[in-house]
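W.,

You were right to be curious about this one. When I first looked at the sequence I had no strong expectations either way, so I just let the prediction run and decided to look at it fresh. Below is the sequence, 310 residues in total, followed by the output.
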Amino acid sequence: MVNLERLGRIPDNGSFFYFRGCFINNVYPGIEFATRFVLEKLGVNFVVSDDQTCCGTPEFSSLNADTVLTSVVGRNTSIISEKTPFVLTDCNGCYSSFYMAEALMEDAKIKAQTERILKKIGRKFEEVEVIHIADFFYKNMGGILEKTTMTLGGMKLAVHYGCHYSHVDGEKGLDSIENPSFIEEMIEKLGGKSVEYTEKILCCGFGGIQQTVHKKISYATTQKKLDSLSEAEAEAVVVICPYCLNVLDKYQGNLLDVEMLDKPILVIHLSQLLALIMGAEPEKLGFQMHRIPVENIISRLTPKESRTKK
């Protein structure tokens, strides 16, 4: 069930800082284009800054030092707070980095060390409100429905929320950790059919650096996830994280290369899906970076007018 208190804290208007994740910039720039496209269609006022850096998660995972994360996030919050207290991100890693750093700063020792580090560069850890783009799009579902030119044409879509999104829980989370469903609600309103599957909350298999240090476990997890999606007869899986997209999409691509996969499942980021049905040109959404072609999604879209006539 959607957390109405959390939903109410997402501003209806005002200025937002769009935090651009480095993985999206370098691997899936089409997601950034899609997010910008939807925000602009909705008339959302947002700003960006070339002064922002990586969120800090890769460095934190590699070096395992709390002050690495708090210092990197703190530098970013200092830059963000100069423009607005509200942050939008379309990456689960970036989303969790901000909240993890905020939690770490409750430790007096870590806070003192972080403040000393940031003071040397004239910065200070500031409090900001970080909003995942999926939450923001849900809050603005009315506006999205008004701006869509296509429907999902009854397509069977499953959803993968991802660990780094779901683990931001309590009052900061929008939905249940055990069984979130707000994106499924969005899919139904957009003319699709949401598909439930047994391994819905299972990790994609990436697990931070697990795909590097524990490959067998990581790949087995990904395979289990895909088997569950296949058993549920999902035509595609909607993700809200570029890392999850990369793992689920690339793994299937590798299997196709060695002829070990007959029927791949398309993987698409929520921003890309919404941009598509709101009129964005498919060639601008970066689908050429996907291993599994998404033409079947595009071909299944139904113009609003023809659906209304039926």
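Here's what jumped out at me. Residues 215-231 form the longest helix (17 residues). And, maybe more interesting for your project: The domain at 4-132 is CATH 1.20.1050.140 (Glutathione S-transferase Yfyf (Class Pi); Chain A, domain 2).

Coffee later to discuss?

I.
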